[in-house]
Write a structure and sequence with these properties.
The complex is a heterotrimer.
Chain A lengths: L1 H11 L5 E3 L15 E2 L8 H20 L10 E5 L2 H16 L5 E3 L1 H7 L9 E5 L3 E2 L2 H12 L2 E3 L4 E6 L5 E6 L2 E4 L3 E3 L5 H7 L7 E12 L7 E4 L1 H7 L6 E8 L4 E8 L10 H14 L7 E12 L6 E4 L6 E5 L5 H16 L22
Parallel strand pairs in A: 1-7, 3-13, 11-18
Antiparallel strand pairs in A: 2-6, 3-5, 4-5, 8-9, 9-10, 12-15, 12-16, 13-14, 14-15, 17-18
Chain B lengths: L3 H4 L8 E5 L2 E5 L5 H7 L6 E2 L6 E2 L12 E4 L2 E5 L10 E3 L1 E2 L6
Chain C lengths: L11 E5 L3 H11 L4 E5 L29 H16 L3 E4 L3 E7 L5 E7 L5 E7 L1 E4 L3 E3 L12 E3 H11 L6 E6 L4 H10 L3 E7 L10 H5 L2 H16 L4 E3 L1 E8 L3 E8 L12 E4 L2 E5 L2 E3 L2 H6 L3 E2 L2 E2 L12 E3 L9 H19 L10 H20 L15 E3 L4 E2 H9 L6 H8 L12 H8 L14 E2 H4 L13 E2 L14
Parallel strand pairs in C: 1-2, 1-7, 2-3, 6-24, 7-20, 9-16, 10-11, 10-16, 11-12
Antiparallel strand pairs in C: 4-5, 5-6, 8-17, 13-14, 14-15, 18-19, 21-22
Helix pairs in contact in C: 1-2, 1-8, 3-4, 4-6, 8-9
The chains are: A alpha+beta, B mainly beta, C alpha/beta.
Pfam families (chain B): Fer2_4
Protein name (chain B): Proline dehydrogenase
Keywords (chain B): Oxidoreductase
Chain lengths: 368, 100, 492
């Protein structure tokens, strides 16, 4: 998704773009994502600024790509499970409002007006109208198509070509060399490997997540609904399994249930404890789901960097190399701003956001 | 002409009554929903979610989920697997089966 | 062989699937001192091949719809004997949706049972033997979603179990050895079978003389069917295919046409045949979901198994169609070997290299024969060209061939998973079991089994409690000693 957005904005900035992927379109983490475009789960800071920029750009793209990418400005509802939790949530929301986020406190009656099928007895929550959703694989495919970039799927990058002076001059693939004065690393969870091919260091690591998918349902879950503890899990450093229910209906009918986080490398086995925890959390939020069938589950690997911020911008260690990866679980949402900023950098324009917090060389070798 | 029941020399107990959308139909002990509906000359009992096209039995062994039906208010039951009991209420299904 | 009755501390094997492979495996293992729980979705053992009329239909001649009934009668008798002796527990109407390695090294098998299949049941075991069988595949053609168009196996299952047919006229079509018994079965049950439409040329079979010569039983079987077809005056059209099914609310007729050597229809050969049922099939695919979720390696579309029918996950065996489609007789041989290997290894006496020579020879012979059939009965190469853009390919999500082609042509999809992501083909209730081979064919890519963690849909309320300790309010653990295993527990 991030690569697709980079291709779109770079092409529109007048650059000649080739998009290379060793797999198919959306074959990595994009194809395993929920398509969250969220501001609600981010505390004030550089990531929130990126999310707010992205939200506006996504709304613009939605006008252009219409229903093809299943864009829905559905809004998010964060639910507190206790009065203490509600107080903490409202304080969190207050900080976000100061940073420009729309966040409306919800008394119980307002909460149940928005989501009538929630479990009874909840003390309240916060409504985030800016949260929205796309279907990630469709979004990536349509952005690529709209970009006019040359798409080379099934091409594995085997080396980053460099001049005697050390600057990049293209990539070598298993099906031939591609020459270009700038290379953007949008390899997501595998971004560290690509950085290594360029002789530099970027400590991107996988954080496994599962998503449960239900049978098709009429629209009973109207927003993206999650429990307040999700924010803590997103920001957590723990390797152990964490789950906090994130429940949302989709345009196509099924309800998607996330979000588990585990640091288990690239283990692709289906873990019943993780799936069970997702189901338990979802049925606690929405008791009617207990009788609804899960048809399938899928897993993916979120690319994360040690400080949970992405790497965006030029790599001062390798002239010509740019990074656009490490967005953890927010890559779909943050893709538009990332692509836009990368295009600005590539065309010599001052970026709309300060890229210092996203500097790719901010990690020492030891921090990995 | 020979019937399948004659071929297997089946002597089930007396037929009982179930309803399909309120209309009474006869079923034999041991028959699934799908078997009883076929016996009654009915071949479709579901309208698809997208185009509302008629569907009934396809795979007959519980794999394809084309024959979904609402049985005693429980939606999305596979008619080819669900056994019938006297008085059961079968309802044809449209959309997701969840009253949409 | 002596029948020992295992005590409660005997190793416990969970056999999943009570078709020919599972039955043979359960019997072989139980006879050698292993406690067996045989889980199966149906009320009666037998699987798809030995499917029988529901007990309450009280059929006195169930064998009228079968051949090889005597083999099944022996298996069923053996099963009853082991159940009575407490060696086997038959968990009927248990729909297994997941199997996992437990932290203590054993396995937990998760099933759904009860009305509406909404109640959880769990079986803990020291080893698992997968005999999950296969399901039929059907390649699409215009009109194939009309009610009245059923899979060949589906028509047979409805007939064998429910003693029903849909209407009095039928055409049986597609390719493969299953079409013959379906046609003769329907005809014997009083249906006017107006044509058997086989796209392959079974005349190619005699050229494979050596493999056939080793199969006198199979030749006799073929002659039997040929005789029955003749007796029922069923017209056999080889190198023909169904081009389209006609009707508005239900099937009224089909158009069939002759095929040329390249798999294209010959101009001027199309003819319309009125029929109430079209029973159509293009072969079988293994059920591999449970194996995949357990981490077993797949070989092509099937579960990989070694000479002892072991998968590459310690403690997991696989036998029958799930390791490669080859028919009931092969499943029996594989199941027997798997059951013996599992018993030997669970009891700490690993088998020697030539522990079951007769079964191994049978297996080798039947696999060779099955390879010959596979080579002859392949769908005609031109099938995809006859699928119009408007034809629904994914029956669940109503995804058309046009949408699939557009995802390849315009959006860069090049494999089944990407087509699925971009079109929803294969995302519905059946999870692509029906459409995946067709999607692969239309997208011009290789068929690869998709990963499905759940072998069948599971209510979230059940999933939320799966694996809780016995005694919890859900997920009650079942073990030997309950149900029909209890009576005999004291017999040891």
């Amino acid at each position: 998704m991030v690569g697709a957005a980079c291709a779109l904005y770079a092409s529109r900035a007048g650059l000649d773009v080739i998009l290379v992927d060793r797999g198919p379109v959306a074959g990595g983490t994009t194809g395993a994502g929920e398509g969250n475009l969220l501001v609600s789960d981010k505390e004030p800071g550089p990531e929130l600024a990126l999310a707010l920029l992205s939200t506006g750009l996504w709304a613009g793209l939605a006008e252009e790509f219409g229903t093809a990418v299943e864009y829905e400005a559905k809004g998010g509802v964060v639910v507190a499970s206790s009065t203490g939790g509600l107080t903490a949530l409202e304080e969190f929301a207050q900080g976000q409002r100061a940073a420009g986020v729309l966040a409306e406190p919800l008394a119980p009656h307002a909460l149940y007006d928005l989501e009538p099928h929630l479990a009874p007895g909840l003390p309240g929550g916060v409504h985030y109208p800016q949260d929205s959703q796309v279907m990630p694989a469709l979004a990536a495919a349509h952005l690529i198509r709209g970009s006019g970039a040359r798409l080379l799927t099934g091409h594995t990058v085997t080396a980053v070509l460099r001049t005697p002076g050390g600057a990049v001059r293209g990539v070598r693939t298993d099906r031939g060399d591609l020459l270009a004065p700038a290379v953007v690393n949008a390899a997501g969870t595998w971004g560290g490997d690509l950085a290594a091919l360029a002789g530099t260091h970027l400590p991107v690591l996988p954080r496994r997540g599962f998503v449960l998918v239900t049978e098709p349902l009429p629209r009973r879950v109207r927003h993206k609904v999650y429990a307040a503890d999700y924010v803590a899990d997103v920001a957590s450093d723990s390797a152990a399994l964490q789950t906090s229910p994130v429940v949302e209906g989709t345009a196509a009918g099924p309800v998607l249930i996330g979000a588990s986080r585990e640091r288990v490398g690239f283990d692709r086995t289906y873990s019943l404890p993780a799936l069970r925890a997702l189901a338990a959390g979802a049925t606690r939020l929405f008791p009617f789901l207990a009788d609804v069938h899960a048809l399938r589950a899928y897993l993916g690997f979120r690319p994360y960097l040690p400080d949970h911020l992405p790497a965006i911008g030029p790599d001062p260690r390798v002239p010509g190399l740019h990074h656009a990866c490490g967005h953890e679980g927010a890559g779909i949402g943050l893709a538009t701003a990332t692509g836009h900023l990368i295009a600005q950098v590539l065309t010599g324009h001052p970026p709309d956001l300060d890229l210092a917090p996203f500097r790719p060389d901010r990690f020492t070798e030891e921090s990995a | 002409m020979r019937t399948p029941l004659e071929l297997a020399d089946a002597r089930p107990g007396p037929a009982f009554t179930v309803t399909l959308d309120g209309r009474e139909i006869e079923a034999l002990p041991g028959q699934t929903v799908a078997a009883a509906l076929w016996s009654a000359g009915i071949t479709s009992w579901r309208g698809t979610r997208g185009e509302d096209r008629p569907r009934g039995v396809f795979c007959g062994i519980g794999v394809c989920f084309d024959c979904l039906v609402t049985l005693n208010d429980r939606p999305n039951q596979r008619a080819c697997l669900a056994p019938l009991h006297p008085g059961d209420a079968i309802r044809t299904q449209r959309g997701t089966g969840h009253d949409d | 062989m002596t029948d020992r009755c295992p005590g409660r501390d005997a190793p416990h094997l969970a056999v999943i699937g009570a078709g020919p492979a599972g039955l043979a495996a359960a019997l072989a293992a139980a006879a050698r001192g292993v406690r067996v729980t045989l889980l199966d979705a149906e009320p009666e053992a037998g699987g798809q091949f030995y499917r029988q009329p529901a007990a309450a239909l009280r059929a006195r001649r169930p064998q009228a719809l079968h051949h090889q009934w005597r083999t099944f009668a022996r298996l069923r008798h053996g099963l009853a004997r082991h159940i009575a002796a407490g060696r086997v527990r038959h968990a009927r109407e248990h729909h297994v949706w997941f199997a996992e390695r437990a932290p203590d090294g054993g396995f937990t098998v998760h099933a759904l049972t009860g009305p509406g299949r909404g109640d959880p049941a769990e079986v803990r075991a020291d080893a698992v033997l997968l005999a999950t069988g296969g399901h039929e595949t059907v390649l699409p053609f215009p009109g194939w979603t009309l009610p009245g168009v059923v899979t060949a196996g589906g028509a047979q299952a409805m007939l064998k179990a429910g003693l029903v047919t849909s209407g009095n006229t039928a055409v049986v079509a597609g390719t493969g050895p299953l079409l013959l018994p379906v046609a003769t079965g329907l005809a014997a049950a009083g249906v006017d079978v107006r044509a058997l439409v086989e796209s392959a040329d079974p005349g190619a079979l005699p050229r494979q003389a050596r493999a056939l010569a080793a199969q006198p039983g199979k030749l006799a079987e073929g002659a039997l069917y040929a005789g029955q077809l003749l007796r029922h005056r069923v017209r056999v059209l080889t190198r023909h295919t169904v081009v389209e099914a006609h009707g508005t609310e239900r099937l009224e007729a089909v158009t069939v046409a002759a095929l040329d050597a390249g798999g294209r229809t010959r101009p001027g050969t199309a003819r319309r045949i009125a029929c109430a049922t079209l029973a159509v099939g293009h072969g079988m695919l293994p059920h591999t979901d449970l194996a995949d979720a357990l981490g077993c390696r797949l070989a092509g579309p099937a579960v990989h198994a070694d000479d002892e029918q072991r998968t590459d996950v310690p403690g997991v065996w696989a036998a029958g169609e799930c390791t490669g489609v080859g028919g009931a007789a092969l499943s029996l041989a594989e199941g027997h070997i798997a059951g013996r290997s599992a018993a030997a290894r669970l009891l700490g006496a690993p088998p020697g290299p030539d522990a079951w020579p007769e079964a191994a020879r049978t297996r080798a012979r039947l696999r060779a024969f099955s390879a010959v059939l596979d080579a002859v009965y392949t769908p005609p190469p031109g099938w995809g060209e006859r699928v119009t853009d408007a034809t629904v390919v994914c029956r669940c999500e109503e995804v058309t061939a046009g949408a699939i082609r557009a995802s390849v042509r315009e959006l860069g999809a090049g494999d089944v998973r990407t087509v699925k992501l971009l079109t929803r083909a294969g995302m519905g209730w059946c999870q692509g079991r029906m459409c995946a081979p067709a999607v692969a064919g239309l997208a011009g890519c290789a068929f690869t089994p998709s990963r499905r963690p759940f072998a069948r849909p599971v209510p979230l309320g059940v999933l939320a409690r799966a694996g809780e300790d016995a005694g919890g309010d859900g997920g009650r653990a079942e073990d030997q000693g309950e149900g029909d295993g209890r009576a005999a527990g004291a017999g040891g």
